[in-house]
Amino acid sequence: MIVVRGGRPLSGRVEISGAKNAVLPAIVASLLTDEPLVLKRAPGLLDVETQLALVEALGKRVERRGDVIAIHGETRRATAPQEIVSRMRASFLCLGPLIARLGEAHVPLPGGCVIGARPVDLHLAGLARLGVDIRVDGGVVHAAGTPRGGEVWLRYPSVGATEQLLLVGATIPEGVEIVNPAREPEVMDLVRLLAAMGAEVEILEDRFIVRGERLGGAEHAVIPDRIEAGTYLLAGPITGGEVELVEVHPEHLTALLVKLEECGVEVEAEGDRVRASSPGGWRGIEVETAPYPGFPTDLQPQLTAFLSLARGRSVIWERVFESRFGHVGELIRMGARITLQGQAITVEGVGELRGTGVAATDIRAGAALVLAGVAARGETRIRGVEHLRRGYENMEEKLSRLGAKIWVEEASVI
Ligand code: UD1
């Protein structure tokens, strides 16, 4: 478990790692070529190891030196191991590249965070529209055929479905038109990578058009992680300190920065840096999560922790996932006043939170509890460290450098 002794202002600089949600599809893109793919600024995360284990199981060889990953070799096998795919939803993205390269794919339905039903119907319907024969049997998706060009309309701009279709479309000369695509910075990073590998992608107002044939290798630097950045940015004001993020793209954080200013937080963004502090406290606000450039669902739990200590009431609508509230009960145990009704959370700000034993149910719920912990009086003991390891590189070190008292204890000490 992670133990946090709270109540100290956190101040200083944090270097932000490469984005988890950008490197995961990039690793899978290696399946589209037999030439080397080199990914720079790859974060050291459990989820990255899982995705690398997946491409290795499919025939690739992986070399890692610091934050540079090189992926070589041929895509040789069409069956993704259940044991790997069940650990993480993003591994399901191998379905498209496998069908594109090998004409068949056998991929178990994905696992991952428990934050909602998270179906993959859009992925499957999209591939079926491109002429792929899809059969689901015993929890495994069996796909066969050669995908052809066409138009796919997404009823919702799903990040994963857009990426799946970009990956497949990049191998189809007639091209794929993805109507109503997701435009998250991580999706656009995949677009840049596919272009570097030789695909053509047109970005239009209502659609992406992607086409390509034989893709080659590439070198690609992954964008900074805007969710990690947002999490650390909140650590300053929530403790009465001041945090400066370095090596970020402030434009990817606009929704958060605007909302923080509305709370009364002082925010400064310049070049690749962002700073936030709030010496006079902050007030409650209303916010709803939405696809990019809306407020990211992946920062909703952390913002909920922050607003627990605001003056007055906040209302947060979770519009992306139907049950992303694993953090709410745990924050209440720490003294937060939160009520949950349907998709809305009402937060009545309290003067202080108190440390206690809590459990992280997913990556961002864990991050919310760490933020609550650094702000709380006393010691917060958070079970479920593995969730934080999935999404935050060197979290204890980064927070310690800001002045936090945070350490990991063996579970047997509970
Ligand atoms: C990605 C991110 C995740 C983030 C989410 C939304 C990765 C590895 N993960 O997840 O951190 O929280 O985007 O920004 O990049 N849906 C369907 N059918 C589908 C696919 C999705 O109904 O076939 C629904 C989901 O249940 C959910 C919503 O669409 O309610 C958003 O999901 P999606 O955008 O696909 O998110 P992920 O790609 O899973």
Give the averaged pLDDT, no decimals: 95
Which structural class do the helices and strands define? alpha+beta
Which CATH-level-2 architecture of the largest domain?
Alpha-beta prism
**Radius of gyration (Å):** 21 Å
- The biggest beta sheet, please? 4 strands, mixed
Across the major sheet, the strand order is: 21-22-1-23
* CATH class call of the largest domain: Alpha Beta
What is the beta-strand fraction? 15-25%
Which overall shape is indicated by the principal axes computed on the Cα atoms? Answer: elongated
Helix content: 25-40%
Total helical segments:
14
Tally of domains? 2
Count of β-strands:
23
For the termini, the CA-CA separation is 8 Å
Bound molecules: uridine-diphosphate-N-acetylglucosamine
| CATH T-level topology of the largest domain | UDP-n-acetylglucosamine1-carboxyvinyl-transferase, Chain
CATH superfamily descriptor of the largest domain: Enolpyruvate transferase domain
Task: Write a structural description.
The structure is a single chain. By secondary structure, the chain is of the alpha+beta class. The chain has two domains: 201 residues, UDP-n-acetylglucosamine1-carboxyvinyl-transferase, Chain, CATH 3.65.10; 202 residues, UDP-n-acetylglucosamine1-carboxyvinyl-transferase, Chain (Alpha-beta prism), CATH 3.65.10. Helices cover 32% and strands 25% of the residues. The protein contains 14 helices and 23 strands. Strands 21-22-1-23 form a four-stranded mixed β-sheet. The chain has a four-stranded mixed β-sheet with strand order 2-14-16-15. A hairpin with a 2-residue loop joins strand 15 and strand 16. Helix 1 runs parallel beside helix 7, helix 8 packs parallel to helix 12 and helix 10 runs parallel beside helix 12. The longest helix is centred in the middle third of the chain and has 13 residues. It is elongated. The chain starts with a strand and ends in a 6-residue tail after the last strand. The relative contact order is 0.15. The mean pLDDT is 95. Bound molecules: uridine-diphosphate-N-acetylglucosamine. Uridine-diphosphate-N-acetylglucosamine (UD1) binds next to helix 1, helix 5 and helix 6.
